[in-house]
Amino acid sequence: MPFGSSDIYWDLACGIGPDGHWHGWVQVRIEAAALRRPGLHPDQPTAAVTGPTPPGWWHAAAERHAR
After folding, report:
1. What is the dihedral of CA 41, 47, 48, 54, to 10 degrees?
2. What is the rounded CA–CA span in Å between residue 58 and residue 64?
3. In the prediction, which pLDDT does 47 show?
4. Residue 55 reports pLDDT greater than 70
5. Phi–psi pair at 44, nearest 5 degrees
6. Confidence of residue 34 (pLDDT cuts 50, 70, 90)
7. Per-residue confidence at 66, pLDDT binned at 50, 70, 90?
8. Residue 50 and residue 38: Cα distance in Å, rounded?
9. Cα dihedral angle (48, 54, 61, 33), rounded to 10 degrees?
10. How far is it, in rounded angstroms, from Cα 19 to Cα 21?
11. Cα 2-55-45 angle, rounded to 5 deg
């Protein structure tokens, strides 16, 4: 994975919405310095990939860990 566990922060908030049902909100933040390593710059309005696409096993592993 391009980011270490200390580079990513997430917050989860839950509460009852105006319709009476529970709702959850997730906020994900990544350190600006961590974005520079894969070629992204946090001050750019858009960014382009500067390296080759990761191999297929990397994508498969990411999908397995997302579940």
Report:
1. 70
2. 10
3. 57
4. yes
5. -80, 140
6. confident
7. confident
8. 7
9. -50
10. 6
11. 45
- The amino acid occupying position 22 is W
Contacts of residue 7, defined as CB under 8 A and 6 or more positions apart, other chains included, come to: 30, 31, 33, 34
CA nearest to 42, candidates 50, 33, 51 = 33
The amino acid present at 1, given as its one-letter code, is M
pLDDT at 43 over 80: no
DSSP class of 8: E
Residue with tokens 């992204």: 40
pLDDT at 11: 92
